C-alpha cells in the first residue's frame, strides 16, 4: 500500500498536465500512487496521460465520459488505496517536498484530519489583484483556530493544496454537488463535524491563474451561489438556535446574504451600517441601525449573533476592533462573511 494517493481530475488540461505530473513524479516521497481521472476531455489530455502511464508505473489512468469535477473526484477517491489522499489539479505544480512534508505532519499529529500549505499564484504576470488578495488572506490562516474563525469569509484552504486522511474524506461523503463550490462545501461540512484543520507555513504548491479556471467559468462559483452556500451552513451551524441575527453591512452583500438567511428561517432582525443615507431606512422590513445602536439592540435578546458582511479592504479589521471593544468574541458571538 502506498503512503499517499494523489488524486488528480483531468479535463482539457493538455497545455498544463505534463508540468503538473512532472511536479508529482519528482516528489521526494516516492511511495505514492497517482490516480488521474480523465473526464472526457476534447483536447489531447488523454494522449498526454497515456504517455505518462507508459513511463511512470505509479500512474493509473481512469477514463469516464465528461461528468464534471465532482464525479471525477469521487471516482478517483474510490480508486485511491493510501491512508492519505492528496488533491492535485492538472494545471498546478507541487513543490518537491509537498507530499513528504504533509504526510510527515499527519503522521505526527493524529488530531489533524487534513493538512494544507501556503500557496503561490503563477504565472506572476497573470495573477489578478483579487486573486493576490485572496492568496494573501488564506496564506495568513495557519492554525485551526484561525481557519475556523474566518471560514465563512471564503474558502481558507485551496483544494489542490490539501492532503486528507482517507477516513475523514470518506466519512464526510466525499465531494458533493449542490450547485455551489464543491470544495468549499466539503470544508464547511468538515468544519461543522469538528474536523481539525492544519496548514504548513511553507509555500509547497503553486496555483495556476488562467482565464479557463473553473472559478472563472463555472456558474457554481458565482457570488449568488457562494452566498447560498454560506447561508446554508451558517443556518446549520453558528446561527442554529439564535433568537436574533444582526447583519453588519446593508450594502449588496449584506442584503443578498440576509435574504438567503431569511428564506432559511434565520431570524435576521436588523442591519448595521455607517452610511448616514442608509441609517433609519429598512432592508426587507428590518431596520438599518448605526453602530452606536448595537449595544442596546444586543441586550434585547438572549442568544444574538452578528455577521460582518462588508467586503471593502480594511473594513473587517475596523469592525473587528469595534466589536472587540464591545466584548463580542469572533467565532462565538460574531463571524465575518465577506
Largest beta-sheet details? 8 strands, mixed
**Strand neighbour order, sheet with most strands:** 3-2-1-4-7-6-8-5
End-to-end CA span: 43 Å
User: What is the number of E strands?
Assistant: 14
Rounded to the nearest angstrom, the radius of gyration is 22 Å
CATH superfamily of the largest domain: Spore Coat Polysaccharide Biosynthesis Protein SpsA, Chain A
One letter per element, helices H and strands E, the order comes to EHEHEHEEHEHHEHHEHHEHEEEHEHE
Helix coverage percent of residues?
A: 25-40%
Which structural category do the helix and sheet elements fall into? alpha/beta
Could you outline the blueprint of secondary structure elements for this entry?
Layout (H helix, E strand, L loop, with lengths): L3 E7 L6 H9 L6 E8 L5 H11 L3 E6 L4 H11 L4 E4 L5 E2 L3 H11 L5 E9 L6 H11 L4 H6 L13 E3 H6 L10 H11 L6 E10 L5 H4 L5 H14 L7 E5 L3 H12 L4 E5 L9 E2 L2 E4 L4 H5 L5 E5 L6 H11 L8 E3 L2
Parallel strand pairs: 1-2, 1-4, 2-3, 6-8, 9-10, 9-13, 10-12, 13-14
Antiparallel strand pairs: 4-7, 5-8, 6-7, 11-12
What does this protein structure show overall?
- With 338 residues, the protein is an alpha/beta fold.
- The protein has two domains: 4-221, Spore Coat Polysaccharide Biosynthesis Protein SpsA, Chain A (Alpha-Beta Complex), CATH 3.90.550; 223-336, NAD(P)-binding Rossmann-like Domain (Rossmann fold, 3-Layer(aba) Sandwich), CATH 3.40.50.720.
- Helix content is 36%, strand content 22%.
- The protein has helices at 17-25, 45-55, 69-79, 98-108, 129-139, 144-149, 166-171, 182-192, 214-217, 223-236, 252-263, 294-298, 315-325, and strands at residues 4-10, 32-39, 59-64, 84-87, 93-94, 114-122, 163-165, 199-208, 244-248, 268-272, 282-283, 286-289, 304-308, 334-336.
- The protein has an eight-stranded mixed sheet with strand order 3-2-1-4-7-6-8-5, sandwiched between helices.
- α13 links the parallel β13 (304-308) and β14 (334-336).
- It starts with a strand and ends with a strand.
Amino acid at each position: 500500500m502506498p503512503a499517499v494517493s494523489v488524486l488528480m481530475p483531468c479535463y482539457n488540461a493538455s497545455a498544463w498536465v505534463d508540468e503538473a505530473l512532472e511536479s508529482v513524479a519528482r516528489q521526494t516521497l516516492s511511495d505514492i500512487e497517482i490516480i488521474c481521472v480523465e473526464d472526457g476531455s476534447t483536447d489531447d489530455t488523454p494522449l498526454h496521460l497515456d504517455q505518462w502511464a507508459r513511463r511512470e508505473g505509479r500512474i493509473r489512468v481512469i477514463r469516464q465520459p465528461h461528468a464534471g469535477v465532482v464525479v471525477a473526484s469521487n471516482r478517483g477517491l474510490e480508486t485511491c488505496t493510501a491512508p492519505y489522499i492528496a488533491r492535485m489539479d492538472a494545471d498546478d505544480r507541487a513543490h518537491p517536498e509537498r507530499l513528504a512534508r504533509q504526510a510527515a505532519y499527519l503522521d505526527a499529529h493524529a488530531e489533524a484530519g487534513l493538512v494544507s500549505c501556503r500557496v503561490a499564484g503563477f504565472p506572476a504576470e497573470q495573477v489578478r489583484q483579487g486573486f493576490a488578495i485572496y492568496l494573501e488572506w488564506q496564506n495568513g490562516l495557519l492554525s485551526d483556530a484561525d481557519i475556523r474563525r474566518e471560514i465563512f469569509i471564503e474558502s481558507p484552504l485551496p483544494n489542490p493544496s490539501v492532503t486528507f486522511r482517507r477516513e475523514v474524506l470518506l466519512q464526510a461523503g466525499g465531494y458533493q454537488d449542490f450547485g455551489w463550490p464543491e470544495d468549499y462545501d466539503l470544508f464547511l461540512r468538515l468544519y461543522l463535524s469538528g474536523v481539525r484543520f492544519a496548514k504548513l507555513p511553507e509555500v509547497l504548491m503553486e496555483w495556476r491563474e488562467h482565464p479557463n479556471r473553473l472559478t472563472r467559468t463555472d456558474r457554481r462559483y458565482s457570488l449568488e451561489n457562494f452566498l447560498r452556500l454560506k447561508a446554508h451552513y451558517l443556518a446549520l451551524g453558528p446561527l442554529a438556535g439564535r433568537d436574533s441575527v444582526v447583519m453588519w453591512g446593508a450594502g449588496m452583500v449584506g442584503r443578498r446574504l440576509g435574504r438567503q438567511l431569511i428564506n432559511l428561517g434565520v431570524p435576521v432582525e436588523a442591519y448595521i451600517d455607517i452610511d448616514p443615507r442608509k441609517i433609519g431606512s429598512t432592508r426587507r422590513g428590518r431596520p438599518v441601525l448605526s453602530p452606536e445602536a448595537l449595544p442596546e439592540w444586543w441586550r434585547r435578546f438572549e442568544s444574538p449573533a452578528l455577521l460582518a458582511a462588508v467586503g471593502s479592504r480594511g473594513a473587517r479589521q475596523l469592525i473587528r476592533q469595534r466589536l472587540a471593544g464591545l466584548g463580542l468574541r469572533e467565532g462565538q458571538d460574531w463571524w465575518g462573511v465577506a
